[in-house]
Amino acid sequence: MKVLELFAGVGGFRIGLENSNSELFETKWANQWEPSRKSQDAFEVYNYRFPDSLNINESIEDIPDEEFEKMDADMIVGGFPCQDYSVARSKKNELGIEGKKGVLFWQIIRATTIIRPKYLILENVDRLLKAPSKQRGRDFAIMLASFNELGYSVEWRVINAAEYGRSQRRRRVFFFVYRNDTEFAKKIDTNFEAHASHTLFDETLYDDYIFNKGLFARQFPILDTPVKSRRAYYNLPDDIVEISDGFSGKVWNTGIMRHGRYFTIDTKPTMEEQPITLGEIIQPENEVAERYYLTDKDRLEKFEYLRGAKKIERTTSEGHTYTFAEGGMSPYDNLELPGRTMLTSEGSVNRSTHLLKIDGRYRLLTPIEAERLQDFPDDWTKYKKTLTGEVAEVTDRMRMFFMGNALVTEIVKRIGDELQKSI
Fold first, then answer.
1. pLDDT per residue as tens digits for the range 24-64
2. Where does 65-190 show beta strands of DSSP type E?
3. Which of 33, 301, 324, 355 is most buried per CB count within 10 Å?
4. In Å, how far are 23, 24, 71, 118, 330 from 3, measured between CA atoms?
5. What CATH number corresponds to the domain at position 126?
6. Can 82 be counted among the known catalytic residues?
7. How far apart are CA 340 and CA 90, in angstroms?
8. Entry pTM
9. 156-210 pLDDT, tens per residue?
10. Minimal CA–CA distance to 170: which of 306, 79, 101, 284?
11. Which H, E and C letters describe 29-85, residue by residue?
12. Which of 82, 121, 161, 251 is catalytic?
């Protein structure tokens, strides 16, 4: 199965799929571009690790249609930026996109339109399902409608990696997209068309698939009843602008979209898998360099302030005064729990940064430990191959940035495991 990896970062999707079955999943093309940066470190790490594929270091918007036409990919994968996906119609009756980085999703649609892959596996932050705040679920509904227009169906699930045996409490929405003429699609539910013409639609039509037989349900088991009876179905209008202007449906953490209708349920995991703890993934202290320890009193006091509860009076640019309140958190991270969600600011003096206390000393995570939180091999990001062909070491700061942007590769592996069973 030939794979195109978009928004490739340092290769998280590729690692996961190759760990599942390196003979079945062959990544032949990859695109990685970091906007607003002179250095392209993530691409250079990818190029160092995967010199055998065609690796493209330019904005996806600048890849011509002719380049995509040369790619006979069976599957497209990628984690794309989450921004504003509202749409409007121009005077010439063409769709226009609001939101600078939000347009990058439409590049996935462009690649899909040209390549016509059988499958896509995409990943994003879970707040995508609630965006924008004033019209929750609209952005995701636009995406569902866009794939429906191209003749694809979508299955989605918000997965917290720690709830399925991994070492990080990282919640991300994964969606599995498949073309409606594939054998996979035909096997799902032959009853859909029989029900589709009913005026009173059966919202439980896909319950067995969502709870038991779906690709996500088999690898990431859930309880077989909705949380607080939360479920919904929605008939997507054919006009995407109509969805952008007037969407009023609900989108929960689990669902399926087939032939313009989606069914969504709020679900909970069965909680049968024990997570890996921070204490299990940290390096022995004799392997940790002194630079990761906090010996500066000012830095320790700064962490104490950032992680503590606070109420601060602030004034807006319009002169309105309000109180910013923030609850306290543990002064340091519990080694008996999985790690918190890692952000791109990991390693800096920041409230979200992991802070460890070991043998009475405070320290930060090492780059290897950050890689382990995302199920990357140790020192995966240590070296890069520069655009001039030289091999160089990557700074700790950039390595942490990579991991904050990455995904938990073991989750992708399990998706790959189930996909190869299904096809």
1. 999 999 999 998 777 899 999 999 999 999 999 999 999 99
2. 75-79, 87-89, 95-97, 119-125, 152-160, 171-179
3. 355
4. 12, 10, 9, 10, 43
5. 3.40.50.150
6. yes
7. 44
8. 0.93
9. 999 999 999 999 999 999 999 999 999 999 888 665 555 555 444 578 889 999 9
10. 79
11. EEECCCCCCCCCHHHHHHHHHCCCCEEECCCHHHCCHHHHHCCCCCEEEEECCCCCC
12. 82
**Is there a single domain that holds both residue 141 and residue 70?**
yes
CB 248 within 8 A of CB 235: no
What single letter denotes the amino acid at residue 40? Q
Q: Are 76 and 112 in contact (CB under 8 A)?
A: yes
Range of the domain at 289: 278-381
Q: Are residues 198 and 323 in the same domain?
A: no
Asked if 241 contacts 87 with a C-beta cutoff of 8 angstroms, the reply is yes
> Does an H or E element contain 107, and which?
helix 104-115
- The CA R_g of the chain, rounded to the nearest whole Å, is 23
Cα–Cα dist 125/80, whole Å: 9
Residues 6+ apart with CB under 8 A from 410: 16, 19, 161, 165, 166, 375
What is the enclosing helix (H) or strand (E) of 221? none
Q: Has residue 295 been placed in a domain?
A: yes
Total domains, the chain:
2
- Indicate the DSSP class of residue 253: S
